[in-house]
Write a structure and sequence with these properties.
single chain, mainly alpha, Growth Hormone, Chain: A, elongated, 4_helix_cytokine-like_core, disulfide bond
């Protein structure tokens, strides 16, 4: 029953998107091409994040979020917001702006993971480059479509957290990757929804 309830809760915001005011864009071939290319790009980034999560699990035995929730509270690592991508008043420019801003935030916070996994610098740097490129793609598409770019106040745009111990650094890296993966899942669903309109 819990699984069904959770499934219903996760699905509910997407049902609200069917009234999305994007009829004028949905038939645009360039827009559709952009969506399909960036769906693939997002899927690739998700795969790279999953690979790094696997490394963190194997290297530090940090694999389950529920075991680390108390430490997480001390670290103050937050999830980049994406509520505009599944709100009842869904608007493409607001959703795209949040995806763009979130990608920029994760690009910066991946520096924590880079310090943690110097042996996997190539993969982390590729991930940073891909996040920057996807963010640029979205910015460019917004400009091409004449969509207003919206800048949301960021909750924590300051420097990366200073970790009080190596263990906290490891847990911080774990949660940055876990949050980034959730962020990408939501962004992917939003892009996929737009592609189906």
């Amino acid at each position: 029953v819990l699984v069904l309830l959770l499934g219903a809760l996760l699905w509910a915001p997407w049902r609200a998107l069917h009234g999305a005011p994007l009829a004028e864009l949905s038939g645009d071939q360039d827009f559709q091409l952009f969506l399909h290319k960036n769906l693939e790009f997002t899927r690739k980034i998700k795969g790279d994040v999953a690979a790094l999560q696997h490394v963190v699990c194997n290297t530090f035995q940090l694999c389950k979020e529920e075991e680390l929730l108390l430490v997480r509270q001390d670290l103050g690592i937050t999830q980049a917001p994406l509520e505009q991508c599944h709100s009842r008043t869904f608007q493409a420019e607001a959703c795209f702006s949040q995806i763009r801003d979130g990608l920029r935030a994760y690009h910066g916070s991946l520096a924590t993971v880079l310090e943690l996994l110097p042996g996997h610098a190539g993969l982390v740097e590729t991930l940073q480059l891909d996040a920057a490129n996807l963010s640029s793609n979205i910015q460019q598409q917004m400009e091409d479509l004449g969509l207003a770019t919206v800048t949301f106040p960021s909750e924590d745009q300051g420097p990366l957290p200073a970790f009080s111990s190596h263990f906290h650094h490891q847990v911080g890296g774990f949660f940055i990757l876990a949050n980034f993966q959730r962020f990408l899942e939501t962004a992917y669903r939003a892009l996929r929804h737009l592609a189906r309109l």
